[in-house]
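Narrative progress, year one. The postdoctoral researcher (J.K.) led the effort to move from monomer predictions toward full complexes, under supervision of the PI. The following entry was the first complex the group processed end to end, covering 448 residues in total.
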Amino acid sequence: MVYRRTHQVVKRLAARRSAILAAAREAAAEGGMAAVQIAPVAVKANVAAGTVYRYFPSKADLISELIAEVSRDELAAVRRAADAAPGPSSALAAAISTVAVHVLSQRKLAWGILAEPVDVDVTASRIASRREIADEIASRIEAAVRAGHLPAQDTQLAATALLGALHEALVGPLAPDNLDDPVRLRDTVQAVTLLALRAVGVMDARARGLVVQAVLPVKTLVGA
Amino acid sequence: MVYRRTHQVVKRLAARRSAILAAAREAAAEGGMAAVQIAPVAVKANVAAGTVYRYFPSKADLISELIAEVSRDELAAVRRAADAAPGPSSALAAAISTVAVHVLSQRKLAWGILAEPVDVDVTASRIASRREIADEIASRIEAAVRAGHLPAQDTQLAATALLGALHEALVGPLAPDNLDDPVRLRDTVQAVTLLALRAVGVMDARARGLVVQAVLPVKTLVGA
DNA sequence: ATTCGCTCTGAATAAGTGTTCAGTTCTTAT
DNA sequence: ATAAGAACTGAACACTTATTCAGAGCGAAT
């Protein structure tokens, strides 16, 4: 035996894998999923096209991992924001506006992860990604229901609907187009958060208070 | 001049065009947009592949017309339901539940029209299709606002969000899967309609009444 | 019946990209 | 220094479908 994987090599391999994923993410953020093509991604990652296949069995796997990664980040942000909130209702508000802000700060990436047509089948990964976030929102709704702040309801359905509303309103093709203006962006996030909270049964006056509480703290995310 | 388009020929040409569109629609309803391929559609329409191109310049045009057609039907149904309602709030409720029922009665087709990945670019047509419906909903919201039934709000944003919520909850990948059961279907339509009405600010108790009013009349659509 | 021109056919073509693989380069251990 | 194994390269390949087009078929007027 004259060759052995030394620690250094293992590290380099891992770094390459990350580089490829990062390149894919960058491509997606710039040009959507359509821009995630093996050859360009390989160039971005400073490897040859064939090398990509030593790390990912197929393009579908590469994109699936990309989706999973982005989704993990978003879920973590949502949890962080919600856990920092003082009560179940503001946790829900924080979760919702975090999704909104997150999605808005990377519109193309979000659209790519969520719904943009891709030539390979990444349905499973997309479903998993959505379900993770939806489950998180559903459990926050449930907590608010248990606390007596919301009427009893099908929380899974509600969570799904809320996410659909956020996505369509913020990154869908009918989304307002001047969301680069920070003021308008904030207003829009507030508006959709308010809409979402009312949808699950938060009374209007109370909702307005929660929206302000929720949106202000996460504003910093936009800069990140 | 030894050849002239006689009335009979004109009629036959129009019939063929319709047959091709109908074949495309059938394919989409059965297998989603992925099944709308020139060769299979041609077979369904009893013509050769090349003939399709005598009626539609490209696959993109064919699909765009398909989207427009389906969208026209849906818009007409929504208007009919809303116009038949006694007041602005119930018109809104009727419009929303009509969209819900309509979309549910042809899930695959709806998904194809709305969001399923397609290999050609039909973005423009999809945007137009959504905007038509969204505008209709927005104007119904506006009417309810003017009547003092709803708080002032960005009606365009609200309409977009509502449609997103309906679509995601009913035909998106996280949609409940046992919607073939009529009881469960009705409950789900009621739940999302209630959610949507509350989102735009209808008070809970009033919303429940509107939902019942709205859903019952359009139930017949499911059979159609 | 014949001719002109439109319509239809369907096999061949085109084009874009994911994937492969034979050869090259690099890394480790002796 | 050298051998053996692993990783990398990138041009060639494969595959899928939309699209084309030369020739066959058909309808209308004379």
